[in-house]
Amino acid sequence: MTEINIPNDRINPEDVKTVFSHRGMQWRGVNNLHSESVRYYHWPFVANHQESMGPGPKYKKLNKVSTAVMRDFTPDRLVVVDGVVNKWIEENVINGAISTTVQKEVRRLCVSIIFELIFNRPITKEQQDIFFDAQENLNQVFIGTALRSYTKRRRMHEELRKEVRKSVDNGDFAEYMNAMEGDFEALVQHFGTMMFYTAVQQSQECISHNLAVIVRRPDIMAKLRSLLDRNTDILEVKDIIEDEYLDWVLNEGLRLYPQFPYTTRQVTESFTYNGQVFEKGDYVVLNFMMSNKLLWDKPNEFIPERWSGWSVADVPSDDNPGKGYFITFGRGYRRSCPAKYFVRYLAKIVLVAMLARVTFHIPKGFKHILRQAQGIPVVISFDKEEQGNPDDDVLAHILLAKLEDEHESYNLINIPNWRGLPWSVIWAKTKAYLSRKDAELFASMYTGTDIWLRFQMHRFLRVFGLYKSESETEHGL
């Protein structure tokens, strides 16, 4: 098996949509980096993880459920965001202001919203804590700061099982059960991977990175001000979804801060394109960050206006090729993300609801990169009368000053791609990297072994006081 990285000298970014649409490029594969990562991250639901499956009866069943669920998540149903955000504000307004991370607060909101959309009932506080703890563990594993917690994930699985059983018994999930041909346990696991791992993780990443940019860019806030002012009390969902400038902002956030810096395929049918030979079994990696550098002027700058003339209809799909180089949500015959529209709609509505109703203060020294082990630090002011300049809000001012004093570099040491190297070589490289204080300890989603190694290196760095780095790359990659 050969690993082929694109774009390269034969496959340029504009060719990606054609290559990824080929019938021989529609499988994630089972014996490659991606499938190993999925098995590690999505455990204990991995047996029914749709994205990592090849064509077959089980994939078709799961895809029917995914399609039906996303069809039911119409924009008008997203009015549930209104109640969830308002409840979040009510729970925190007594504190006036809190010091937290953007991801933590957004993740909690996404768990509550998606739960209510699926089951048509609000999540309880106990359930929210159970789902949030499991989701937090997934996020920590994702960034390499913790190992998998059997207890937390099992508790979520059992709670999810109870809720699915309720919905099946009262007839709400009849269509889903028919699609699964009565396989109840597979349906439970599918909801675990599709909604409470994948959807929550992708939504909170998208929302968090965009929010972190917007609150530190007065020019962007000024252009969104009219939209925010119209949604301080009741969300106008249609108005938000159709806002063109917010679309541009979201696209730029997805371009600069994609959920993953690459996507993958395993070739199932040999073919040649533009001189590049793709043999059956080859592993193909599309590097989003490299595509950015080749396609865009000022690729590392956040410029929403570059998307002028672009519309949501340009999202690549099976029916619409769109702009082939913008495939954050996947691409190909039956392989584009079924949630591509839902995540966009949800992100836009949650962003507006949060920005219109509370104030965010991010430390001046914060360096925004693709991955932050500790999250994006923030002070959130919930008191409407005190919102605005943190100097006018005494509590927010104190919390922000403390946060800025404690703030350290959020970059880590970069471990390159060490897959397949002997352990003796990895150990030698590890020793070399530990001697470099200006290195970066972060890599994207690798195998369970890579994650374990990173976790141990994090512990080593903390113990010996070497955790803080003195320099960083543009995006922490």
Widest sheet, order of strands: 1-6-3
Structural class: mainly alpha
What is the N-to-C succession of helices and strands?
A: EHHHHEHHHHHHHHEEEEHHEEHHH
Gyration radius, in Å = 22 Å
Proportion of helical residues: 40-55%
Instruction: Give the rounded overall mean pLDDT.
Output: 76
**Can you summarize the main beta sheet?**
3 strands, mixed
Straight-line distance between termini: 25 Å
Shape: globular
| Total strands | 8
Number of helices: 17
Uncertain stretches of 5 or more adjacent residues: 316-324, 409-420, 433-451, 466-477
- Percent strand equals 5-15%
How would you sum up this structure in a few lines?
By secondary structure, the protein is mostly helical.
Description:
The structure is a single chain. With 477 residues, this protein is mainly alpha-helical. The protein is 49% helix and 7% strand. The protein is built from 17 helices and eight strands. A three-stranded mixed sheet has the order 1-6-3. Strand 4 and strand 5 form a beta hairpin. The relative contact order is 0.15.
